[in-house]
Fold each of these.
Amino acid sequence: MVSIAVIGAGLSGLVVANLLKDNAKVTIFEKARGASGRLSTRRAEPYFFDHGAQFFKAKTPEFQAFLTPMMEQGIIKEWNARFVEFMKTDVINKRRWNGTNPNYVGVPGMSAICKYLAKDIDIQFSTRVSEMVDNGSWKLLDSDRNDLGSFDWVISTAPAQQTAELMPKSFLYYDSVCSTKMVSCFTLMLGFNKELPIDFDAALVGGSDISWISVNSSKPGRAKGYSLVIHSTNKWAEEHLHDDRNEIMEYICRHASSIIGVDLTSADHKNIHGWHYANIQKQPKQDLFIDEKQKLAVCGDWCIQGIAEAAFISAFNISNKINEIISGR
Ligand SMILES: Cc1cc2nc3c(=O)[nH]c(=O)nc-3n(C[C@H](O)[C@H](O)[C@H](O)COP(=O)(O)OP(=O)(O)OC[C@H]3O[C@@H](n4cnc5c(N)ncnc54)[C@H](O)[C@@H]3O)c2cc1C
């Protein structure tokens, strides 16, 4: 059976593994301790925070079909949030999301989706792939140069810059990967021991260093601890990536308080996460990166657009193509 190494256990890597596992022996290597990547949930009991993706859409029939089993089992639900849009401190739009253009979340946290997809997959966690050696097949090494095994195919689903560090320069699309720029984002996580007088669940913010504020605990099936998630803009994060984390936390907290007119500084729990590769600034020109001759491929949201559905579509297209190749269709 053909052996395939997949780098990354975010949505793309897990989709690829699930769609290829009937035709190949698939192993995922993930540098983190668990699956999910940017669809993760951070735990600080009694508070839980979806500190990456907040919700997602499923507009394509392929993604809808893939999600159906999870919807039937209650792992994915609609989030019918009270939504507002701020321009600076003014509310310029207010509505309730509904089923006509549904926004979905994982239940009881975003990470439930990847946990479900990881169930029957061979995943080696806490394993950062650092080098690929061409020895007729692809030998992978971790950061201590331990041999992780040799594989017929390697598919990287790591963000563009991390994929560029790994792929050999001979990879057919090496230049495209290198020219793809991903940008950062800070996420402030706040927990409160009582509810706050906030009359929205989700807020898009314009004209500010903050782009998003949500009452995470208002999502379906969440634990009781009242929690807020606040994202900086990508621009602000790029300019402050190396600043002191406490100062960043205090700035975002004060700034968000002034936008919504509610003091957030007395939070019971405060934490900040810096995403180095959160979103795409410059997208590649094509979206199917498969080098059939060298048996190398890359996929991920950044190949199309910085949203979960794009991560799925990218992984779905690559998997179909590789299934065709290995089954000789
Ligand atoms: C702050 C933020 C807010 C967002 N909001 C939304 C939203 O509201 N709606 C939406 O649809 N999308 C949103 N997104 C985007 C969404 O999260 C992504 O599109 C999606 O999760 C990407 O999945 P992926 O598998 O392509 O990449 P990732 O989730 O980044 O997975 C890549 C994995 O590769 C691993 N990895 C990297 N290098 C190595 C290595 N060398 N060895 C081993 N493992 C490695 C990483 O640890 C990671 O787990 C948001 C993202 C962020 C960061």
Amino acid sequence: MATSIAVTSGKGGVGKTNTAVNLATTLCRLGKRVILFDADFGLANAHVLLGTNPKTTTADFLAGKASMAETMTPAPLGLNFISGGSGLIELLNLDNQARYRMLAGLSSLQSEIDYLIVDCPAGASDSTLFFVNAADIALVVLVAEPTSFLDAYALLKAAYLEKNITEFSIMVNMAENSKTAEANFKKFRDIAMRFLDVKLHYAGMIPQSTAIRQSIIQRKPISVSQPKSTLAENYESLARHLMKAQKSTHDAVKFFDGTS
Ligand SMILES: Nc1ncnc2c1ncn2[C@@H]1O[C@H](COP(=O)(O)OP(=O)(O)OP(=O)(O)O)[C@@H](O)[C@H]1O
Ligand SMILES: [Mg+2]
């Protein structure tokens, strides 16, 4: 059965999109069939990092001009990419009904894929909580800053109180090294578990790296352009953690239920 992973964060600009893109391409490299769905509709930019120029986007799907399958753009390593379009999509009134239509559109593709990666907007917006609720795995991107901790805690609290989600995978981005990354995870886990009845699992780390900045400027994900690099290994380790992660069992309308 296909697995859905929502990539989220409390604070903006912590590296969600770059993580979602590299996670998706790494899963492709590991032989998985993957869709990357850009759900950051107002500020969609995953296509920039992927180096693709989508002709169709979710806006076409919502306007009834294309099926969800028809909105897919081929991306590196056989990845299927669904663009969040430009700010235009906001004009289509992204209410819960529109979100459920997207969910149904993505559900209809479940027999064709192994993984759906959803790049979410920052923070605990209605949209993010909707997609996190529908996903099997909530991946929270953390950086070692008090503001990131605070905002990630707010996201966890909202997901727990509003959607009863108790399991979260955490990755530390822009880390100094693996030791400090894990120490930061533990610090964050201790804070979260002191106040909320949640379980946090460490999924891995990506170091602070000028090569990553460079890859974004060149519009070539590092896991595609430098598959033998240490950074690509870090993404592979993250992907392997998530492949083994337990799926959330909270009661919700999920992307995938194994029926079609
Ligand atoms: N591991 C890293 N090392 C160095 N720079 C990084 C790393 N990850 C991300 N960045 C930098 O951070 C910037 C923001 O990354 P990204 O767009 O992925 O964040 P985001 O969380 O998706 O942002 P937003 O909240 O706006 O959607 C990138 O343009 C890149 O320059
Ligand atoms: Mg982003």
